[in-house]
Amino acid sequence: MAWIVLLLASVFEVIWAFSMKQSEGFTRLGPSLVTLGAVAASFILLAMAMRSLPLGTAYTIWTGIGAVGAFVLGIALLGEAANPLRIVAALMIVGGVVLMKLASPQ
């Protein structure tokens, strides 16, 4: 169950990162409120997952999914660059997340 909670926390991390970009420095109310709500949900769910998952594992996976998710949304929805070096960097993050999960005792 902790892994599902961690995955959900990671999804909320992607949501808050994307909505923070959309808030234009917290000058737009709607995206700003989404950001604050998603941040709260993400942190609460991360804390719940950390009740049974090791700190290093939970935090690494949470940030890795958040980083790659934000990267993908930036490319798909915001027209950000998808050059080969950026893609390789994202794949390396995914590889690190997978290795962290495989190395986890849970």
3D structure, described in words:
The chain is an all-alpha fold. It has one domain (2-103). The protein is 81% helix and 0% strand. The protein is built from four helices and no strands. The chain has helices at residues 2-22, 29-49, 55-78, 84-103. Helix 1 runs antiparallel to helix 2, helix 1 (2-22) crosses helix 3 (55-78) and helix 3 runs antiparallel to helix 4 (84-103). The chain is flat and about 45 Å long. GO terms for molecular function: transmembrane transporter activity. It is a multi-pass membrane protein. Belongs to the drug/metabolite transporter (DMT) superfamily. Small multidrug resistance (SMR) (TC 2.A.7.1) family. Gdx/SugE subfamily.
- Mean pLDDT value: 95
Structural class: mainly alpha
Number of domains: 1
Globally, the shape reads flat
Extract low-pLDDT stretches: none
- Give me the strand/helix succession: HHHH
> Helical stretch count?
4
Radius of gyration: 15 Å
Helix content: over 70%
The largest β sheet comes out as:
none
Number of strands: 0
Pfam families: Multi_Drug_Res
GO molecular function: transmembrane transporter activity
Protein name: Guanidinium exporter
Organism: Croceicoccus marinus
